[in-house]
Amino acid sequence: MILKGKKGIIFGALDQHSIAWKVAERCVQEGAQIVLTNAPVAMRMGEINKLAEQCNAPVIPADATSLEDLENLFRKSMEHFGGKVDFVLHSIGMSVNVRKNKAYTDLNYEWMQKTFDVSAISFHKTMQTIWKLDAINDWGSILGLSYIAAQRVFPDYSEMAESKALLESFARSFGYHLGTAKNVRVNTISQSPTMTTAGQGVKGFKEFFDYADKMSPLGNAPAEACADYCVVLFSDLTRYVTMQNLFHDGGFSTMGMNPALIQ
User: Fold this and answer.
1) What is the 3-state secondary structure (H, E, C) of 208-262?
2) What pLDDT digit, counting tens, does each position of 221-261 carry?
């Protein structure tokens, strides 16, 4: 029960394949109270109300690109909890260019700006809202989900790679301000390829999933293990970990070559 007494907001749970869904379940198992949120369009597509019932958690719709929606989310969450939050998970990503199979050399720039707004700038907007409303307790924890394409080239990941690089930069920059002011830590987790609904929409995902699984000494980290890692980073056991991009990928990020690929 390492989250007993803690209160948090989980962004991005779509269905049972979502990492955010697994994180929500584990947080509640470890004693936390949570609020669930997603964009209204995503809520219509997913099964978040089923998770809400399971976790005894309210659902507060919010478009994370809207400052008005974010302010409403945090105000209502604090009313629900009777106080500030202790942790936040940002598990949001979307690229219209990827969905429509636009080549990286022929991107639609309006769609690219939407990608950045949804996948990265929403993280800054979330933290800025937290800052302005003083919505998080001292020694709180904020996490964003990232991917190694922020550092390395994965051609089919398209401009989502730049989105993740921007996400990680926001974690470092806002991590300084929140850490200095309130001892709040901000980190990103760079997760293995994971069989989520969004992940499987990327061209060639299954082949790359198998490649990464062979390359990694421990194999790909499943969503359930990522949820465990998130719980630890929300807990008081990691109070001095901040402004880091933490690889949770079975060792993939350190490997150069694995003989298993040749075999």
Assistant:
1) HHHHHHHHCCCCCCCHHHHHHHHHHHHCHHHCCCCCCEEEECCCHHHCCCCHHHH
2) 999 999 999 999 999 999 999 999 999 999 999 999 999 88
Give me the phi and psi of 249, to 5 degrees please: -145, 20
Q: What CATH code would you report for 7-262?
A: 3.40.50.720
pTM of structure: 0.95
Q: Give the closest residue to 52 by CA, choosing from 64, 34, 39.
A: 34
CB-CB neighbours of 246 under 10 Å? 16
pLDDT digits (tens, 9 = 90+) for 5-31: 999 999 999 999 999 999 999 999 999
Torsions phi, psi for 244 (to 5 deg):
-115, 150
CA angle 119, 125, 127 (to 5 degrees): 110
Tell me which amino acid residue 228 is. Answer: D
Question: Would you state the structure tokens that stand for residue 171, as one six-digit string?
Answer: 């974690």
User: With 0-12 CB in 10 A as exposed, 13-18 as middle and 19+ as buried, what is 79?
Assistant: exposed
Q: Tens digit of pLDDT for each residue in 70-108?
A: 999 999 999 999 999 999 999 999 999 999 999 999 999
Question: How far, in Å, are 71, 166, 182 from residue 141 at the CA level?
Answer: 19, 19, 11
Residue spans of alpha helices (H) in 82-200: 96-99, 109-116, 122-133, 160-182
Helices then strands (H, E): number in the chain?
11, 6
pLDDT confidence of residue 42: 78
Pull the structure tokens for residue 103: 């080549």
